[in-house]
Amino acid sequence: MNTPTSSNVYIKAINEYSVEQILDYYRHIFEQEPFKTKLNNAQRILLKPNMLGAHHPNKAVTTHPAILEAMIIYLKELGKDIIVGDSPGGIVSAESVWKATGFGQVCAKYKVNLANFGKRGIITKQINGTDYHFERLIFEVDGIINLAKMKTHSLMLYTGCVKNFYGLIPGLYKSELHKQFPQPKDFAQVIINVYSHIKDKVLFNVLDGIVGMEGEGPSAGKPRAFNRLFISEIAPAIDYAASRMMGFKIQQIDYIDQLLKNINLSIDNIKIEDEFKDDILTDVAIKEVLLKKRFLDSLPSVIKKIFNRFFEYYPNFEDECVRCGICVKSCPVQALRLEETDKKPVLDKQKCIKCMCCHELCPIHAVTIKKSIIARLFL
Prior knowledge:
Layout: E1 7-13, H1 19-30, H2 35-40, E2 44-49, H3 65-77, E3 81-86, H4 94-101, H5 103-109, E4 113-116, E5 122-127, E6 130-135, E7 143-153, E8 157-159, H6 161-164, H7 171-180, H8 184-198, E9 202-214, E10 222-224, E11 228-232, H9 235-246, H10 254-262, E12 270-272, H11 287-297, H12 301-310, E13 313-317, H13 326-330, E14 336-337, E15 346-347, H14 357-361, E16 367-371, H15 373-378
Parallel strand pairs: 1-12, 2-3, 2-7, 3-4, 7-9
Antiparallel strand pairs: 1-11, 5-6, 7-8, 9-10, 9-11, 13-16, 14-15
Helix pairs in contact: 1-3, 8-10, 9-10
C-alpha cells in the first residue's frame, strides 16, 4: 500500500447546483499539483458517480448531475476520453437510473458514453479468500474520478467517497457479498477490500455535499443542505472530514478509521483549510443510525445477548407498494416473496439478514424499518 504522510482536503462553500460555479472551482483546484500531473498522465477516464437507484436529483440519493456536467466540461477542455459508469443496486435497470437521475441527459448533451456495468465483462479477484467480481472496464481505463454523495447510512452510519466504490461490483454480486457478510463490522472489511484493491486507479475524489442526506440514508433519509463541495486525492481523507462535520467521531466509522491506519495517514495530517478546520454542521440527524451502536457497544457481552433478543428491527412494506418486485429479486437470501394474491411482499424473518437492501433499493420509499418496543426506545 501507498503510505502518504499527509493529505489535503479542499472544501468550497456552495449553496446551489450552479454548473458554472462548480466548474470554476474545478479549474482552480485541478491546475494545482498533484492533480495536474495525474490528469496529464491519463487519457481515458472513467467518471464514477453515485447511481444507487432511479431517484430524482432533488431526493439527494444520487450525485447531482451538475457535479457530473461540470466535470465533463472540464475534462473535454483537456481533450480527455470520458466514460461515465456505475452499477445500481440489485436488479434496478441502469437505463431507468440514467433517466431519473439526469445522468443520461447530461451524457447525451456532451456525447459521452454511459457504461452499464456488468455488460462489458467481469474480472474476478480473490481477496482474503473471497471472490470479488469487478467491472472489467475499471482495469482498462487510465484512471477513475470518483463523484460521490455525502449521506448517512443505516448499516454503516456514513457513506461518501470510499463506499461509492462498492458500485464497481455489478448488480447482484453486491447482494451476494451482503449475504456473506451481513454484520456491519464484517461488511466494513468488504468495503475496505474493494477500495484497497482499486485505489491506485483513482485520480482523485469529489464529494457532493451541496445537498446531502441525513437520517435513515442512503435512500430513505431526508435531503439536507450541507452547502459543501469536497475534493481530495485520498478518499478516506475526505470521508473523515465530511463525517466529522456531520457529528461523527472517526472511531465510529470503522472502515474509514481502518483505512486511514492502513495507509499510514494520521487525522492530524489531513490538512483542511482554516475556514473549515473546526466546521461542525448543526443538528445533523445522525441519531437514527448512531444510537443503537453507541448503546450496544457499552453493554457487557452477556447483557448484550439478552438485549439483542428483544431489540428487533426489520423491513416493513407500506400500502404505497406498487408490487414492482425489485426488493424480492434483489434480496440476497431470498427472504421475500410476492405471490399473485399478496398485496405487497411477504418477509420471512428467519431468513432476513437485515442488510436492508430492500429499504435501500425501493424506488418509491415504500419500505420502512419496523422496530420492536425496545428498538423504538433507542432508535
